[in-house]
Amino acid sequence: MAQLGLVGLGRMGFNMRERLRSAGHEVVGYDRNPEVSDVSSLAELVSKLATPRVVWVMVPAGEPTRRTVADLAELLGDGDLVIDGGNSRYTDDAGNAELLGRRGVGYLDVGVSGGVWGRDNGYGLMVGGAEADVERAMPFFDALRPEGPREEGFAHAGGVGAGHYAKMVHNGIEYGLMQAYAEGFELLEASDVVRDVPAVIKAWQRGTVVRSWLLELLVRALDEDPELDDLEGYVEDSGEGRWTLEEAVNNAVPAPVLSAALFARFASRQEDSAAMRAVAALREQFGGHATRTKKVSG
Fold first, then answer.
1. Interval 6-16 mean pLDDT
2. Disulfide: which of 32, 53, 115, 196 matches 80 by Cβ 3.0-4.6 Å?
């Protein structure tokens, strides 16, 4: 079995370490949280690995990843390999690969999907980089992907950047799917025709064209809270949806569903929308339609 250094033991990285270990691989993990880390520093992690070394990075996208890659460039050498499995923007990958390449270090970018369930179910992997580097890391990819045919949970998407590009589009699609389920749930709730909304959604899991893992997760949430009253309808976005839409614009690809899903998330954060106040004012001005004024305290 193979040896791997893993940097970042958060919700994803921790479970990935456990899945890799259960497959027989030796994993040395480093995290700033000493309660989960196997070593006390990045330098110690590198020192524990036999050459040629493979180090997988699972830290937040942006500056944390760039800084970690830069630190590894100082610690690693010719023949080593770095894998960025975080949600980095694909445009960061060329710079990371160039920086590491000056030291003779290879680079792969991997889009990883599976969330907190990946430890048991496996992770969908989309990889960008050179064929030789992909083959070298294949024992780890095979351990992490779901059981079954390789092509159903793994893809070598292309050169450097292709893995993160594929994951970006994947997450944009995810926005649209979640929004569709959410709107269907709200319509069922608003109607007085359907008496048991959770039962209807649960029935969609088998034999229907809308069945999916996301639907199963919605059913799980409804089992815990049938009307989802315990949650506030405030939804953040982690960046990939915005990047996907930017790429759609750059490539002149119509993406109305993905854009609507992202804008719905923006709307969820507005307690009092200036735009909708303007719409209300216009309706009152041209048609005399009724409006609601704010209550003044005191």
1. 96
2. 53
